[in-house]
Amino acid sequence: MSVGATAEKIDVAIIGGGLAGNLLARQLRRSCPAVEVAVFERNEEPAYKVGESTVELATNYLLRKLGLSTYLYNEHLPKNGLRFFFDSEARDTPLTEMSEIGSRGMLWVPSFQLHRARLERDLLRFNSDDGVAVHRGAKVRALELDENAKGAGGPGRHLIEVEDARGTTRYACRWLIDASGRASVLARRMRLRTEERHALAAAWGRLEGVVDIDALPEPAWHQRTHYTARALSTVHFCYPGYWIWLIPLRRGQTSVGVVCERGRFSDAWRKPEGMLSFVREHGALASLVEDARWIDHGSYGRLSYGTKQYFSTARWGLIGEAAAFSDPFYSPGSDFIALENDFLTDLITRDHAGEDLRERCEVYNDFMHFRFEATMLLYRDLYGTFGSYELFRVKFIFDLLCYYNLWLHSYARDEHLDLSAARGHLRRKDFILDAMQKFAASFRRLESRLRAEGRYYAGNRGRFDCRLENVEFLQRVGQPRKRKDVSRATEAAFNEVRDLLLELKGEARGLGRAWVPIYEFLEEGVIP
Question: Which residues fall within 8 angstroms of residue 188, CB to CB, at 6 or more apart?
Fold first, then answer.
């Protein structure tokens, strides 16, 4: 193909009208309305998808940058944080007796449970009304990257050939964005996909008739959380090597899924009855889904993968699952969409103004690779820790404090879009990743020790923890904080988790322990 007079010219072509592509189109219209945007979605109507749960970074993006607060509260559900339950080895502990980690009230920083099909359908409508050229039932049959597009200010355009009900049409675009999900149209064409040794599989579906856990007749259990809505949380039932989620959706629907190490995955779960049979092997869950009815079902034999590159000065980019996917445990997928869309919106806006993109492209790619690797270190080879309340509680405190202090605060300040601040984060990359690797190794060592001593399940009954209430800097997230204050909070988090690990090993609380300066955490033996 070659770009000719018969090709319709547009500024930005987005392949895929799912969550990532729709949000980028909306952001571009709000940030740079002079840029012409077209979305090409292969389905006539959005299909149900998993990925319903948002966390705080993505929600900050949706509310602050896309103006969706009223819509989300009207059409979707507010989320009451992440909640974790822990069972016995026999998987027979009643729900109200399981140890629990979760909140005792709606959280100060908001998040949502999304009905993906409804959200994507509404976003397509919003975008169309706002001047985006939305093409439904549009299949990209061919594409050609124009080499002349390389370098700032170049005249080149990419060419895509699209087939829809009207026939075949060619479009010449200045920017080509792959938001096609796991189809990864551009990423596969350019061989950008990288394998990730974090081997997971998953099966899921939507059900009607799941029992409302807030309706269980256990007053003492409800009083423990100050009668907050547990059912609005993303609920995790945690086991060694796998976990099962419950996510509420509007109008009586519940998303249910199993995520596990690939070696544990059963082909029987690829069918609704097989997956539901496995869920019912867990006593507490069996009581919740006893009379449930399937709406739809899906599965993936492989979840995690990366990419060699996210953005290019040749004016193309990858977003959402077309780029990379880490792990759904802490619901980070929409966080990555927020970062990728911010970076691309900034690049496209600057390109439209005639700026040179080379420096920013390099920094933005490095930042995304850093963020992806840091996220993978939360999960890689750590699924064995999930089934122990005592061990996972320590890991969750570490993960939680790092997320709020390092990632959410930085995003809320838009530091990722400031070259100086972004470079500052990248200068600290090796320290952060090394510290995370050392803590992960400590969690794995302690898992082996607890199993060997028969203590792995010791705390899985009757305990409750809400560490989020004691995050002293939480209400200052996004407010001006000096770099030294962020470093001090990181140092405090590292020391707290180190002390908890030592206690779990059997050392008495505060037994001759000196405060460890942050830089010493890279030394061998400091983290037990």
Answer: none
